[in-house]
């Protein structure tokens, strides 16, 4: 730490009692040093971030204008043909519909469940810590693990079918992963099981920020536990709920791993379980239609971006200052 | 119930009360839904495939160790675990070092363009990392980084930076100004202040972002799938997926392999769960 050698560095004011010219030169040196520190400390992060997050997206826009098999530089300029092709492909339209089902389904199924569980696990009772840990387990598991696990459980004549028959619900048995009309709902179930823990973690973190004084005051005023939750806790939890909705939406739009692993490639290629991301990787990477795949990437990005901006504009705006970003001095 | 839900200020010192039976019944049901499928996979690894086919929902009878032994001795499990560990540790180190440096500047320096820089980083949260995977692959190919640890580590660091900065900045901002002044009077520059006072004070937040980065990397699938074509570099998620599609009829073996692959992340998270929830509190301050 070189700066420790220089007592005038950092935040300390120039020593009093010096002539003004000397003082201002010290201040200039401090300003220069400050800028060196700012640049030195942020540059590595900025470079990595720009290079691996922003630059590739720029390239995607460029590549998407070509018909290109990925060998040599792209030469066959086709304008917006790739985009037109995508929106004419029924499989891609299926993928869009599936993403919509997952976005909406995740919000309306996970939200209430997560809220109920978080309120339950926010109560103080013995053994709470253990329950909290167990509830988070699915969220920590790798998507691949979860996918393979449910694939084995849901396979025809597998454990889920056997259990349903044992408890007399054999009539409910479906070809969970093979029936083209059922598979997307099976995917939604697996995704819900996997990600509801994340919603619970966030909500518990939000709940622990609700001041005790408020819930206490409500109780003194004669409010029941339910009334306290409904009228005191929930409104204060608003920002956390909206942040979760936002993250869930972005995650649902780019969902890949669970779908890729759990549903068979044939089912996916018929559109029954495809999402924009699996469609993009199938066509771009594995079928080597690089120009086309990049066009799908841009579509995925634009849809996510529009959704994010609309969400920010209408729901998150009030929260951005205090909630997601924290207070800054 | 009301007294239970609304603890008085002294309740922190009182022993925690037992909940009502209703509370436990609900909590148990929720926990069962989360954990039973996982337990099934682990226990299923102790059965044989014929046992599983004959009675999918049964218990091991007798218990066999053979599946776990096979995975631990014959398959590529250890090499894949090693690759996963190298990549996850590299990612974690990169994220924490770059994230702390950037978040420190954003939290403790006043300068023109500071908020713009912060917004620039938070844009990454809006950004679907998966969308850029194809051009990212092409870029890494042109840089001759394909089939190297860097091809996974560098992009993962970049993907994780926005969340890391969002979590760290409020923590670093919350350290009182007086401490900084005191450090300055004692002759420490801002960097000395970062190193000697900020880092020790913000250890909980550092653990949070570190664990999140580690688990995200340990579980990552799409990026390694595209950039690690070389089987010798495969990580555990790739290994599990390959094993399950290669030996489709060896259900018991798949269950054992899957169980072993998920253990490290589970252990890691169990140890750090409190820290993670604590760290997120800063980020979702209401």
TrEMBL record, chain A:
Classification via SUPFAM superfamilies: MetI-like (SSF161098)
Compartments where found: Cell membrane
GO BP: any one term: transmembrane transport
Domain of life where this protein originates: Bacteria
InterPro entries assigned: ABC_transporter_permease (IPR051393), MetI-like (IPR000515), MetI-like_sf (IPR035906)
Membrane topology note: Multi-pass membrane protein
Gene3D superfamilies cross-referenced by the UniProt entry: MetI-like
Keyword terms, alphabetized: Cell membrane, Membrane, Transmembrane, Transmembrane helix, Transport
Chain positions covered by the region annotation Disordered: 1-23
Pfam families registered for this protein in UniProt: BPD_transp_1
Coiled-coil region list: none
Gene Ontology CC terms: plasma membrane
Bias type Low complexity, positions: 7-23
Residues that span the membrane, as ranges: 35-63, 100-121, 133-153, 182-205, 243-261, 289-311
Limits of the ABC transmembrane type-1 domain: 96-311
Family (UniProt): Belongs to the binding-protein-dependent transport system permease family.
Protein name: Sugar ABC transporter permease
